[in-house]
Amino acid sequence: MAGSTVDDRTSDFSDAELVAMATEPGAETPAKHVVCSVCDIGCQLRATTDAQGRLARILPHEDPFQAANICFKGTAAPQIHNHPDRLRTALKRVGARGEDRWEEITHEQAISEIAERLQAVIAEHGPEAWAVSTSGWNTQTGYGMDRRLMNLVGSPNWISGVALCAGNTAA
Fold first, then answer.
1. In Å, how far from its chain's centre is CA 39?
2. Has this prediction a pTM greater than 0.70?
3. Which H or E run contains 81?
4. Among 40, 63, 85, 146, the one annotated catalytic
5. What is the mean pLDDT of residues 69-90?
6. How many CB atoms lie within 10 A of CB 64?
7. Could you confirm whether 15 is annotated as catalytic?
8. What are the residues whose beta carbons fall under 8 Å from the beta carbon of 1, sequence distance 6 or more?
9. Rounded to an integer, what distance in angstroms lies between the CA atom of residue 89 and that of residue 83?
């Protein structure tokens, strides 16, 4: 395929193919406009749900200029979101590492125990011993609280998903 150029980027699909993909009818519910939250970019996409109300498919936006932005992470969202092994509650290891023994705990207990352990690391090794990498979802819904927390702790070791995925393309 010759591909089309969108904002100086080349897509493997022509504009007509992108529009066809975005308007392709399916057995799921009609596609609704959504914003992808896998990384900081927030691409505009479309999503369908199945008969049980679960996320079924992620489709490109109908606008060819926005449709070229869909990436593998966005299209894999239904498999990630609906995976049977996806964690839905806080778990605490109750056996030795590698024994695969866990118990459910409250989120409050998990946060409290994590805070105690992180405070011990900072007390022994200093704030730069702690590093955080946040995804777009955390960055967008936390209103910068994760970065602010790192500033308060005194650690410069914070990075976002966009910097990991596309940061080297800005140079």
1. 5
2. no
3. helix 77-81
4. 40
5. 84
6. 19
7. no
8. 12, 13, 14
9. 14
